[in-house]
From TrEMBL:
This is YitT family protein. The keyword Membrane applies. Keywords: Membrane, Transmembrane, Transmembrane helix. It holds the Pfam family DUF6198. It comes from the Bacteria. The chain crosses the membrane at residues 49-69, 81-98, 110-136, 157-178.
Amino acid sequence: MKKFIIRFSLYIVGLFTLAIGIALSLRSNLGVSPVTSIPSVFSQISGKSVGTTTFLFYSICVVLQIIILKKDYKLKDLLQVGFSSVFGVFTDIALYLFQGLSVTNYLGKILLLVLSLVVVSIGLFLILTSDIVINAPEGLCIAISKKWNVAFSKVKSSFDIFCVILSLGVSLLVFGNLGQIREGTIIAALSIGRITGFIMNRYSKKLKGLYS
């Protein structure tokens, strides 16, 4: 029971850390993170909060996992839907906490962006290593990784790039501009998967030692 409590605590911390990373990327004003780009553009279209559209996007990711894995899909992974709603709330809370954060010079924005990339990667690392319920987008990447035997870090990077392309297309179609897709989004798409993979390779065994 004690081991489960530690793992669950790490998972919740990971969820909130990920939400903070997303909020920091938004406040950098250099573009939203790749996975957030889709909820962000649909938030602008619908008028709903980013947390709400994040929950809807994550639910779609769960459906795609079921389609890909079919009989190999584990029923416990349906908990992703419930925890996606929690993450949606965390996202809105993090955005509220950092609503007053404003960086005007470009160097400061770059530093804030880099910080957000590291924080997002740490959040993903905690979520994946705690092995409670995988965050829905990462669960989709893992499903693709298992189905076609491709390294998770490569799938994650490709998925991030796909999210950017999709949100960019929708933004151009609906608003006629790039929306919140900027250089920071591209940098994040190319780096988050690699940073997460680096952290997991170096520290996953040490973290698992806390509850193994």
